[in-house]
Amino acid sequence: MLAYIKSYLSSSQTPGAAGNMFWVLVYILIIFGGLSIAVMLMTWLERKILAHMQVRLGPMRVGPHGLLQPIADSLKLLLKEDIIPSEADGFIFWIAPFIVVLAAFTVFVVIPFGPTHAITDMNIGILFMLGVSSLSVLGIVMAGWASNSHYPLIGALRSSAQMVSYEVAMGLAVVSAVLMTSLNAEGTGTLSMIGIVQAQQAQGEWFIFKFFPLGLIAFFIFAVAMIAETNRAPFDLAEAESELTAGFHTEYSGFRWSLFFLSEYTAMIAVSSIAVTLWLGGWLRPFPNWLNGATWDKAFSLFPGIAFLFLAAMCFFNAARMPKHPLFRVQTIGLAIFGILMGLIGLFLFIPAVSSRVQDIFWFAAKVAGFMYLYIWYRGTFPRYRFDQLMQMGWKVLLPIGLGVLILTAGVALVQQNLWHP
Amino acid sequence: MAPVATPFFFYMLSGIMLIGGILVITRKNPVHSALALIVTLLAQASIYLMLYAPFVAGVQIILYAGGIMVLFLFVIMLVSIDRSMKERQFNSQWAVGIIAATALGGLFIAVFTKGKDIFPEHALPVVENDNTQQLATMLYGQYMFAFEIASLLLLVAIIGAVVMAKKRI
């Protein structure tokens, strides 16, 4: 048993490819736990950042600067009554949230957090991701229909129309990125997520900068389409609260509602990971060509630790800034303890053996975190689209541009291949 | 690595497909039928995976389960379910159905009993890792003409749909 567990450590494959079920399970648990923590953090960050954008304070009461707010929220959701409307279609109403959650989490099977840090690597990685994430719309449609109520039905209809139309533009953008992976001596591309990042490494260029501005335009199309796919502002028509109460999950409460919430944020992380993998070089560190060499590699491997030390410093700074009133003593101490924890994690990440293994994950997570911030920023900035504007944008703007970019990319790639390898 | 394509999975997936297929034609509620059809299609995609055809499986999930069935549901959801449930089914086609089923069943039995003469004993070992690439070279090399014809047909269908839907172009 122990030998079986140890046998994986010396291999340089993903646990799925090595066929080691123990490490597969470990990876699944780590990713599941990490995602849950990330979603909790996102709910706190979203409320905080939106509040600061609107010159409010946001949650301040539960824990220092509202840091424990997600825990209080989830407790509240778990304790709420689980209501199933009497006119609802019981079984479908019951199963819909699980389908959405399953679709959102299954996608993470192929996401490469590092050259070996993925549960498995599939020959059809990107197709698998797009396919499984497109299944989540089924859950939304089922939820809306089974509620047997007007607002959820309208929300579900909007959601399905929106997803089907934006999937086309999204697919075209993805194809143009996949096409770029075939620019090597053999002339064969790949659909595997790890293969796509390795192609960027081999070509010495992130695909967002490839054939400037073609890669950038494809990335832009994907970045717009992915917001529509995840039903987020400014494309959150499926749950437009001013028109449809809460859209497709109006009739849901308590735990079931929180499953929808969880899957929405998980899906956001998933599509951001697709964008990072396809265009932003996945786990690769920034400036690989400009700042190369062993010294720079060493310097960049210190970043994970520095990031956590920065968080620790922020915590201490804010603990020092807390009002000097007896009522705030517990909060001040709590924030300081949180800072010490962050600092310890940061110091742990400075150990060379750890930092060399963790830096891939760190760069990937940092890029995804950038997208998460953009999501919040969009929500704070853009007003919601009207439905006809949304459809017009998808079919008449993004789709033609996507087609054009695909054809141009193919043309440029053909010329380059034939000139360089005659 | 141990092969995933064990008989157990084949029987399980076939069972799911059969149950799903029966549910599609026996449910009165069209939304339930559509959902059962989705289950069937997903099980079929898994069988493609077992046959080491990951690309076909992926396309099956994206196109059928994620695209076409969503459009089906989109239309069905707008139909008044209560009225259609009460209505008696009027397109009874028992005779045609039985003839078609017997013909298909006969074909299956014939292939099962005489299959050894028709098909080679062992299937060729398929390398999973470049299945997609092989499919692409086949599709864009040997079967280029058929592929282009199919694309042209689809283009005609798209243009036809636009022409029929629009009053004034």
Largest sheet of chain B: none
Strand content of chain A: under 5%
Mean pLDDT score of chain A, rounded?
Answer: 84
Q: Assess the beta-strand content of chain B as a share of residues.
A: under 5%
What's the architecture of the largest domain in chain B, going by CATH? Answer: Up-down Bundle
The main β sheet of chain A shows up as: none
The pLDDT mean of chain B sits at 82
Classify the secondary structure makeup of chain B into a structural class: mainly alpha
* Annotation, overall tally of beta strands of chain A: 0
Determine the CATH topology of the largest domain in chain B. Four Helix Bundle (Hemerythrin (Met), subunit A)
- Outline type of chain A: globular
How would you describe the overall organization of this protein?
- The complex is a heterodimer of chains A (422) and B (169).
- Among the domains of chain A are: 37-79, no CATH class; 88-284 and 396-422, no CATH class.
- The relative contact order of chain A is 0.12.
- By secondary structure, chain A is an all-alpha fold.
- The mean pLDDT of chain A is 84.
- Chain A has helices at residues 2-9, 15-18, 21-53, 69-79, 90-106, 125-146, 150-180, 193-203, 214-229, 241-244, 254-279, 294-301, 303-321, 329-349, 352-381, 387-420.
- With 169 residues, chain B is an all-alpha fold.
- Chain B has two domains: 1-82, NADH-ubiquinone/plastoquinone oxidoreductase chain 6, subunit NuoJ (Four Helix Bundle (Hemerythrin (Met), subunit A)), CATH 1.20.120; 127-169.
- Chain B is built from seven helices and no strands.
- Chain B has helices spanning 7-26, 30-50, 54-78, 81-86, 94-118, 131-142, 144-165.
- The longest helix of chain B has 25 residues, at 54-78.
- Chain B is globular, with a radius of gyration of 20 Å.
- Chain A binds chain B through residues 17-19, 89, 92, 122-124, 127-128, 130-132, 134-135, 137-138, 141-142, 144-145, 153, 156-157, 160-161, 163-164, 167, 188-191, and chain B through 1-2, 31-32, 35, 38, 54-55, 57-59, 61-62, 65-67, 69-71, 73-74, 77-78, 128-133.
